[in-house]
Structure formats: C-alpha cells, structure tokens
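Ticket #346: bound-state structure for pyridoxal-5'-phosphate.
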Amino acid sequence: LALKILAKRHDIRALLRYPPAEGWSHHRLDGVQWINTMGLKAEPESVVLAAGAQQGLSLILSAMTKPGDLIMTEALTYPGVKAIAEFLNLKILGIAMDQEGILPEDLEAVCRRRKAKVLFCMPDLHNPTSVILSLKRREALASLARRYDLLIIEDAIHRPFLDDPLPTLAQLAPEHTFFLASVSKSVAAGLRIAFILAPALNLGRLRQAVAALTLYSSSLPFEIFSFWIEHGIVESTIRERKSEIEKRNKLTRKILAKQMLQTHPRSNFLWLTLPPEMKCSRFTLDAYRSGVIVSPADVFAVDDKQCPEAVRICPGAAQDQAVLQKGLKIIEGILAGKKIISAETV
Ligand SMILES: Cc1ncc(COP(=O)(O)O)c(C=O)c1O
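RESOLUTION: The complex was predicted; output attached.
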C-alpha cells in the first residue's frame, strides 16, 4: 500500500535520487509542522532530517563531542544513549533526579567541577520513570546552559502524548538546545524518521556529520509521513494511541494497585519499585521464566552502584489488553511471592 501511495506522489523519480543535503524542502516543512504541533516555532532552515531519534542522537553526539568528552544524562536514562556513549568513547555521568526531574543543583555542581559539554535529557515523560520536568527546573536548566555554555539534547519522543505540555527547553534556551522530535512512539517506529531542530550556531557542524556519516536519510519514509499528515492519519494515529495508552496504563495501575508505581496516565511505561527484599535481576528472571518481559533498572542506570531495585513495565508491548492482563497477573503473583513454575523447573 505504501509503495502504491508513493508511486502516485510528487515526482517519484526525484525521490529515488540522492536527496539534497538539507533534505527535500517539503519534508523539512513537514518537520516544521511536526515540531510546531509540540508548541515550538521552528524555521525550515533549522530542521535536519534523521532516520529516527537514535540516529539523530548519534549524529548530534558525533558532531558536538570528541572521544574522552563527558556527557551528562539523568541518573536513569534511555539505554540508547549509553550505547552511543560507549561507541564514541564518551564518558557519561548521571545527574540526580526526583519526582520533578533532574536536580539543577546537582547539574551545576558537576558543571563547576568538571568539563561537561552536553546534557541529554527527556523532560516530557522521562524514560523509564515517566517524570515530567517541572517548569521551575526547566527554567533553571535553561539558565545553567547559558551560564556554563552547555549544549542540551532534548528528547521529545513522548511529548506528542501530552495535551498541555510545559515549554520545551528548546523554547527556553533555543541557542543551546537540540530538539529531537521522533515519530517512533506516537506514529510509527518502522518509518525510522525524526526531525532535529538545531541551534543556529551548531547547524553547520550537524550537517557535516549528516553528510559524512549517512549521505542523507532515505526520502521514501518521509514521503509516507507527508502523505499521512495530509490525510489526517498522523493526527488520528496519535489520538488512538493516547486512548490505548490511557486504557493500558489504567489497567496496569488497577492490577498492581498495592505496588509502588510511578507513572503518568499518558505514559507508555510504569516504574515499579520492588518490595524491600526483592532484587530487580531476580525479579526480571522470574518474570521472563513465566513468559513476561520487564526491563530491570540496571538497563537504565548510568552508575551501577546507584541502581534502584525497580523494573519498567511497558503495557504497550503486549499484543492486546487480554495478554496484558494475563502478564500483569503473573507480575502480581511474583510480587506476592508465588513460586515460579517455569519450563526449566517443570
Ligand atoms: C527516550 C527514547 N529516545 C529515543 C528512542 C529511539 O527512537 P527512534 O525509534 O526514533 O530511533 C527511544 C526508543 O525506545 C526512546 O525510548
């Protein structure tokens, strides 16, 4: 179907050639529209196309750092950034966070002591805790970025799920912030597309990285996205996903009502702090043996020594709500100390 659509669109021959260095202008305009629905006012000249947030992140980090540099993240972070840091030989340091997000005083203490260049963070529906960075903290981070000449990479992958989001860091400190806007969670991960809104001063360097490391993103997925925008498919998909997330999140909270859960009604995941005697590695293994996959805290912890005994539950990963319910009942059983009857023990 996608190929049929593409065959009829614009000049398909042009799309099959190498795209211009900055991407086709109508794709960048889609990026502007996508970014602007999240409350920003992007200009097409500042939008760079990437094959997903992971590629966008590796391009930004390749462009803005060199081996040995120190980057900072929330103490628990998206595992993909840990993987890139390892690959690019970057040091990575976790900044303490609480229910309101990253602690600006901890960030400032690190900036004073060490030569840190970049902060990667997820202010909206932080992965894995679902925390939303408070307005006060956003303002504090923006002012620290200016004071310490820090570059921020703001990962907004879950922002489309929020109805009245707070201002982005890119709005509060535009000259210091790369705004990373993937469509993976809210529209379709398989398209592999994301838009980067880059600070004017760093745009050239980012473009060099795009040219050197990718020779540009494929135009075809961007064209499908374009078609979906035009036909209201992007909007309706987000609406459906929001509603499905709400239902699954609610079901999870209901079944695990007695547990210590941290989440948001519009979050794809719930952060479960385990009862005092339980270890997350053991719990993850027991769940796996019973057919349920959860992500243990060490996957997200930047510092193994400061890893909480918690796991992330991702209700969206279940095939449907019936499967989710079954999986949650298994989790409930393990938490209640039920014995695991696994393929290995039977
Ligand atoms: C917070 C976060 N950022 C980025 C990514 C990667 O996104 P993409 O599929 O656009 O590469 C993920 C994927 O799970 C994620 O959770």
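RESOLUTION NOTES: Residues 233-255 form the longest helix (23 residues).
TICKET STATUS: resolved
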